[in-house]
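Researcher: Re-running this chain for the archive, since the previous output was lost when a drive failed. Same request as before.
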Amino acid sequence: MSDVWDSETPPDPVVISPWGWGRAVLRAVALILLISICLALLLLLRLVEIPIWGQGRPITPFITQFVCRTAFRILGMGFSTHGTPMKGRGAVVANHSSWLDIFSLNAGQRIYFVSKAEVANWPGIGILARATGTIFIERDRKHAQAQTALFEQRLLAGHRLLFFPEGTSTDGLRVLPFKSTLFGAFYAEDLRDVLQIQPVSVIYHAPKGQSARFYGWWGDMGFGPHLVKLLAARPQGRVELLFHQPLRVSDYPNRKALCATAEALVRAGLEAYLPAAAES
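Model: Regenerated structure tokens:
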């Protein structure tokens, strides 16, 4: 059974005007310059992992956050947050609508992504993911113990990890049932009593006159056409991040209870800020 979510209604056709192609080219050039320069700096700094403020945190997440916020300015896309990103040790979980979530969530706080292993080989995105310290996981259970140990090591080092418990992206109008597997890593003896998990709702608002699913990326939709559509869009829409109150791992008896609470909060946030999500 595939983990890819698909819709009964096919995606809207991509229609780009000559002016749209011009915008797409100009924005693409600006983004390539921004990412290339900062990627070179990221790769250099990741070799030395310069700590800042004596707290053992590398400087690379600050550069990643700058790139993502600047990318939204280049796109002309609105970005806003509600609530307060957590501080201290812990992890973040969010709903998953698109590859654009990488930029949205990195723009909102300094985090490290947990991603399926296949992403490491994706053109463009794979290079960015590796450069920004993403943890790649295998779905094979024989790797579970080693992956749990890696999570523990990174979390104890003060890295805030982010993953998508849905396991796949959608049209942005719904939250799929969360999978509790990765929540089990937070119950390690050294982590349970010191970690918090912060649920985050990611809400995309389509450009005026466009389908509410405009920013969603699902099924067998190609990355290239979806990217060009976003680069060409005028007007653009906006994205909001809703940071919920962090959940103390020790307050929940097991991973399933913690997972269920996080899912309920993320879903409620999406439905409150994007009423169209109720159709799910």
